[in-house]
Amino acid sequence: PGFEQTLILKCASRADVAAGLRSNLGHLLRCGAVIRSVDNLGERRLPLNMRAPVGDKPLVGHYFLVHFESPPGVKDRLRPLQRLDPFMIRGHVCDKTEADWVRPCSTGEQCKFGEKDKPNFEQAYAVKRGYRHY
Amino acid sequence: CRLVLTAVGRGKLGLSTGAAPAGQTDPDMPLADMPDPYKKPIKKCVLCRQDVPLDYKNARLLSQFVSPYTGRIYGRHITGLCQPMQERVAELVKKSQKFGYMSQNIKETFFLSDPALFRNPLSGPSVAAPASKSSKPSTSSTESEKDGN
């Protein structure tokens, strides 16, 4: 199945970023992935305090989006390889099946705004307690 | 005139006067295939109406549903979204934060000038109402005063 990885690499110099990208794509290939494309999303200020697995706490990261296909257990196989990577800040993998999510109201139904499915639930399912003979 | 039994749409039997041949509907009789005129229009939330595609990489869109002060996701009573869309937005915000596109504690400053999809929860319901109602009479009164003076 198809996956996409948001790779955040440390920004030291162009050569370092290239080396980091090469090593991380190598990890993917070692896990049995077929890399389809790599999108460069540019250098961005990190939105949250991220701790890199190796090294200092960075403030800026270089974002890449890697589209690849691989057998299902790729996340477990990738984790030990990413653990000691000196170039990477984050590299989470996501399924592409997320794009198949369909709105419930696209079939012509009305949007649900919290209306109860069973409006008389309390009346219908109330337990009648009366006088018990002990 | 002779009363003739004629079939009026969908096999229902009806009575019609005169020499109207079978198969032709009488204009005085109600239409069998008429759509319900009292049917309420389908109510949709903002995202469903515009058919907005949601993506965890689109931090700008997801940040519109997040507080600029605390970075928390606004509830459904504030955003006005329907139940499935609110759950989907919350799911994608969490994912975006995990993947490193969005912050958990703040909203990015360059997203603060984005148009608001709903009223600010900190301001009361009286924000919009007095401004729209009092604008017209106040301007006319001031103009008349100026003309008088």
From TrEMBL, chain A:
SUPFAM superfamilies per record: Ribosomal protein S6
One GO BP annotation of this record: translation
Domain of life: Eukaryota
GO CC term (a single one): ribosome
InterPro entries: Ribosomal_bS6, Ribosomal_bS6_sf, Transl_elong_EF1B/ribsomal_bS6
Listed CDD domains: bS6_mito
GO molecular function, one term: rRNA binding
Protein family: Belongs to the bacterial ribosomal protein bS6 family.
Record's protein name: Small ribosomal subunit protein bS6m
From TrEMBL, chain B:
Species of origin: Macrostomum lignano
Keyword Ribonucleoprotein in record: yes
Entry's Gene Ontology molecular function annotations: small ribosomal subunit rRNA binding; structural constituent of ribosome
Single Gene Ontology BP annotation: mitochondrial translation
InterPro entries: Ribosomal_bS18, Ribosomal_bS18_sf
Protein name as it appears in the record: 28S ribosomal protein S18c, mitochondrial
One Pfam family it belongs to: Ribosomal_S18
Similarity comment: Belongs to the bacterial ribosomal protein bS18 family.
UniProt keyword terms in alphabetical order: Ribonucleoprotein, Ribosomal protein
Entry GO CC: mitochondrial small ribosomal subunit
Biased composition, class Low complexity, residue ranges: 123-142
